[in-house]
Amino acid sequence: MTLLWTIVRWLNGCVLALLLVQSVIYLWQIIVAFIELRQHRRRASRTDTWWMLTSGVALPISILVPAHNEEETIVENVRSMLALHYPDFEVIVINDGSKDRTLSVLIAALNLQKLDRVWHQEVPHQEIRGLYGSPRHPRLLVVDKLNGGKSDALNAGINLSRFPLFCAVDADSLLDQDSLLQVMRPFIEEPEEMIAVGGRICIVNGCTVRAGQVTEIALPARPLALLQSIEYIRAFLIARLAWSRLGAMLIISGAFGLFKRDAAVRVGGYSHDTVGEDMEIVVKLHRYFRDRNQKYQMRYVADSVCWTQAPETFGVLRRQRSRWQRGMMQALAKHRKMIFNPRYGPVGLWGMGYFFVFDIIGPIVEAAGFLLVPLAFWMDEVTPQFFLAWLSLTFTYGVFLSASSLLLEMMVTRTTRARDFALLMMSAVLENFGYRQLNNLWRLEGIWQFVTGKQGWGAMQRTKFRQSPGP
Amino acid sequence: MGFYTLIHWVSLLLAGATLAILLIVVVRQAYRGRRTQRELVRRQSLMALALEYIEEPEFIPAFKAQLKPADQRLLVDLFAELLPKVRGDYVEKVVHLMRAMGLGERCLLQLRSRKWWKRADAAAVLGWFQEPQIVNALENALDDPQVQVRLEAARALTRLHAVQSVAGLVARLAVVDASHSLAVQEIFRSLGPAAVTELIGVLECDLPDQVKLLATDALGHIGDPRAVPALLKLFHHTGKRAGDPIHEHKSRRVPSSNEPGQPTNASVALRLAVMQSLSVLVDPRSLNAILAALEDPIWEVRAQAAQCASQLGSPAALSRLEKLLQDDHWWVRFHAAEALFKLGETGVQTLLKTARGTSARGAEIASGLLREKGVAV
Hints:
The structure holds two protein chains of two kinds. Chain A has helices at 2-45, 49-54, 74-82, 102-110, 150-160, 179-189, 223-246, 261-266, 277-291, 314-334, 345-378, 384-412, 418-430, 435-451, and strands at 61-67, 89-96, 113-115, 128-134, 137-145, 165-169, 173-175, 194-203, 208-210, 213-216, 256-260, 297-308. Chain A is of the alpha/beta class. Chain B has 21 helices and no strands.
């Protein structure tokens, strides 16, 4: 009994210490994100898109769109990509062995024909069955290949691309018309050292889409997607900005990221043995350049927006979140040498250290906390007074963080309506009752899947974008 | 104060701060939303009025009388967006209207603002005014502590063709922290034919390679054939001077696909830049240098030389391009094949011969490229 008492007391201490450290880190992130955003806003407001379009400074980009069973949205998505404001780009759609009509709808809608293109296999991928193009859309190339997963499809795209930069974009996502110009800005400032730039992901559910462009921004009507909206704001306007500022950014979302082709080829492209290929390639790039003591930079651009569909059902969201957790753990396990390793600078010491402690140990400790509370009550280790005080503190702090992220959101977007801000705030309060706990459960599931060696993505559901009536 | 009281007070404080933030966010956004809407409407009406008065300058005083105090800022923004998009007489008409509205003076004052972004905005707009005092002010802005302001001032001066000396630009832009920026590169490209002599001078001075790189790139873009001898001299000189780095680079060359793709030292980058400029200049005097570059130890230089050879269109490069179809590096083979195709019938025949030949490496790239171009192999 004494041993159990000691263990419970020790675990209680761990939970409290972890929460305390995490709270301090969150506060630091908010302050850093605020400073970064203030400076960034000034620079961004000075971005003359017309100058970038006409002066010849914008480097050519290959947009890679891996598509697997995307018949619902692929045509609209490709049309939207082809209409982007950018001086020189190509769109490479990679049909990764879809079982639905992804390829045939593309062929029919865009009048595609088979063509030849000479290419070189610099990074590994499955066999390519055919290439398609259309004289009506000279910027478009469609690659039909055997199924090999998203990494495999992106690798095929890298091999077929001919421009110095490539932009990986999800097939269920839409880019703002000026997104490419905005995300290109760091490459103009530092063309030699810049190797990757990430853009911001926003939720498209609820927004109105016309001709592949988001014409009216609105919050999702369904509660599950609404709860994710505040999560995305927190992730992209606080965490990512702060890590980017520290030079320890570990994730460039797979839905929208711009990479130097040559750097990606040097690290062997996307890895096949992970479902978190977006994080893994970024970690791999950090490792490659740090190992060789070569100067490099990666940056995050908060006003370059990509719109993505958020899951609206618990089943799909659960699969997504457990997969994210699994992917993150795979990347960390593969590059475990970097964790807390000062040789890798802030990336290893802070970035990977943070992910290890708070995203791997954190969910386990949080779950342990749920079990410990009743046990601690039973053992008189925690009084109801302490429990309530602690609960009120963590709850108000959580809501305060979300409110602060809205303040940052206001600095970036001018279009969000005041009513929507109030709604977002409400969801920031409500997410503490059930949603956060569920999320933790899914992360634990991801940890379990990683431990048991589960592979694969699981089925994702695609729905058509909400259309506005024509003129 | 007890422990629990402290926690409760902190919680209360956080709750209060949250409510305050929410209030600020909602009220400010509501206010900003309305203001944005109002400004949008006003901008549209101002634009309509401005377009009307541009054609009838005698009524400008009447236009001026209709303006509210806040309209001047909106008009500056409006014209700053409009000016880069209009051509010909319209530019002068817009600038005349701005002058008459006193917007030039307003920007001149703004150039002394404490906020750097306001100074940068002002410098950008002043790039359309030819007045000597404005040019002087822009010259002074080249010494601004903020790089963005210096860039805007330099861009404005190049637009006005009022850059007093390339050396001054080099000192204020290229030798400071923005030397790698493509924005600086673009400013040098815009210097125009008047700056060719000075840019050639930069190539011959003892300046960092990074600065010479900017001058080389600019000379290529300006397209003045006077630059060719200096560029050739630089190419040969860089080759000799950079013996060690090239040797080092060569020793790292392996036929694997993971070979470093970018030049790792400035002298290699400089040789590449010279090749790029020569491919724009298309001058027969550069033939020997291009032929030599086709056998350069650096693969990037060989690939660029192949592109250069196709631009020049000289049959003298045919045999060396044919040899490059067997190069260790795929991108060199690809550019050589493309160059042969662009050389016309003889090049296509060379590609066909290689495609039907025994070397798998050459046959693959030659037949692949021919198929891509729609030629039956």
